[in-house]
Amino acid sequence: xxxxxxxxxxxxxxxxxxxxxxxxxxxxxxxxxxxxxxxxxxxxxxxxxxxxxxxxxxxxxxxxxxxxxxxxxxxxxxxxxxxxxxxxxxxxxxxxxxxxxxxxxxxxxxxxxxxxxxxxxxxxxxxxxxxxxxxxxxxxxxxxxxxxxxxxxxxxxxxxxxxxxxxxxxxxxxxxxxxxxxxxxxxxxxxxxxxxxxxxxxxxxxxxxxxxxxxxxxxxxxxxxxxxxxxxxxxxxxxxxxxxxxxxxxxxxxxxxxxxx
Amino acid sequence: xxxxxxxxxxxxxxxxxxxxxxxxxxxxxxxxxxxxxxxxxxxxxxxxxxxxxxxxxxxxxxxxxxxxxxxxxxxxxxxxxxxxxxxxxxxxxxxxxxxxxxxxxxxxxxxx
Lengths: 261, 112
Prior knowledge:
- Chain A is an alpha/beta fold.
- Helix content of chain A is about 30%, strand content about 20%.
- Chain A has a single domain, classed as Rossmann fold, CATH 3.40.50.300.
- Chain A has a 9-stranded mixed sheet, with helices on both faces.
- Chain B is about 25% helix and about 30% strand.
- Chain B has 2 helices and 6 strands; from the N terminus they run αβαβββββ.
- Chains A and B meet through strand 3, helix 1, helix 6 and helix 7 of A and helix 1, strand 1 and strand 6 of B.
- Strand 3 of chain A pairs antiparallel with strand 6 of chain B, so a sheet runs across the interface.
């Protein structure tokens, strides 16, 4: 399996098409630090120690930087939506798209291990969407996004939503070139999620606390949840939303229109 | 299990570096992994063994240097060790901004 470059051993699919080897592997080079040099051998006569000092995520970050540059050139506002499975992010997304209809061009990249159900739900709203199936992969990476963009071709000055694989752990480490990670947490999940999965909440610029229409039926402590999120990320902004009742949707849309200002 | 992706990236860095130094055998690998980097060290070892099998780093010793987490209090500005991201400043009871311990890098290789 090669989930790093997205070749996925034949399991990765973008827009339903298998992603095959033979693409531009090796085209992007790691930045070579100036201080890479050989040391004297230490173990045995023929072995030597070599200083490397390379970031493990350098390759992904280079792809992410290319994506970010592409978004900047085209004036695209890209968001990376992250959450656990079942937080209601696809429903929230379809509702958001309906409310923005005619105002802003929107495009969506959907990430799931299997099926194109979510991309179909998005396309039913009338906007273009492409599905990435990661096969066994647990997150989207910047290289997959680069390929998806080739097919999706989002319009200039559009809003691009990247719905990551439902997973509160792995997507935290992978920059896709987005302007912000937006973490969606539903009130049916428990208020201590920000402490249990701190890396994701630390990486996000905005938390949408979703399904708040259900609060009367739950013992979810909103204040505590917000406090926990701010403990791992003092700068995180929080909006309470419900795609069902419409609560908080105005504030969320205002945030989108202001491009996260 | 993003450690699998990370291990794949480590192998690629090893292969590039070995090629640059005209080596076809790597005996040991030093990784620096911050304690707040979101990497499970045991999973990393497991994945490293899996992805290096049959490669120039097959059987290589993996040394993991764990760099400690550090944070800075947003209230008093003091820098202090940070074990968990959610730790608070013991004096101010305020959240800390992470200033260290998120590194993930291949530091050094021992090669033929």
